[in-house]
Give the backbone structure.
Amino acid sequence: MVQPTPPSSDALHRRGLMFIMSSPSGAGKTTISRMLLEADPAIRLSVSATTRPMRPGEVDGKDYHFVTQGRFDEMVENEEFLEWAHVFGNSYGTPKAQVKAGLREGQDFLFDIDWQGTQQLYQKLETDVVRVFLLPPSIDELRRRLTGRGTDSAEVIAARMERARAEISHWDGYDYVVVNDDIDECFAKVREILHAERMKRARQTGLIGFVRELMRP
Ligand SMILES: Nc1ncnc2c1ncn2[C@@H]1O[C@H](COP(=O)(O)OP(=O)(O)OP(=O)(O)O)[C@@H](O)[C@H]1O
Ligand SMILES: Nc1nc2c(ncn2[C@@H]2O[C@H](COP(=O)(O)O)[C@@H](O)[C@H]2O)c(=O)[nH]1
């Protein structure tokens, strides 16, 4: 009797997922995202377009696609975004092209986006979406992190701190909430979430044939 062969790689047998990380500004989602991208070559960053000025150390096309407001508006007009929002006085959006085709091919994507974008993606692609919200251990520590990052002016930091409580109020729109106190612990938890979500039965559509074979009398 021919034995059914177990699928060798889950990436070949499921649709990609959209792993979203949000938090108040400065809580650490960019840091955790970078760690995840380095540790896990199977997930790719969805590179957003933004009208905000580039920070020192950022690379156009890698961290963001830095565009003018005119170009951004044109992209909105041409329906080139999966979602977009105004955040802290700038425009940010997720270009459709890279993500849609990738998901079909089983590519997982990481999104560093705010709660408005998360809601839009969830409304459009609910079953593909995993929503993770990071909290800072305290408001004082959040301020320390924003200041210590050294990338923003005092005005920008004040504006982001001003919005922090409002951002945190959206925590209940997420599937998972993790406090980013110790960075390594937080990263380990985020990785566990990603691993478990990849294993969900509903995502492993490629297993159906294998299970049918196993159950054949
Ligand atoms: N667990 C942690 N302990 C101490 N410092 C941290 C921790 N996590 C991140 N940081 C530091 O806090 C600062 C802000 O982190 P990061 O830029 O990742 O935040 P963010 O949530 O992506 O902010 P934004 O939304 O503004 O992009 C960085 O200098 C980072 O090195
Ligand atoms: N809705 C979206 N929000 C986004 C996107 N890209 C980033 N962001 C969020 O904006 C703030 C500020 O980011 P920063 O890099 O200027 O500090 C932060 O909350 C990001 O998560 C996007 O494409 N759509």
Q: What stands out?
A: The CA atoms of residues 25 and 160 lie 6 Å apart.
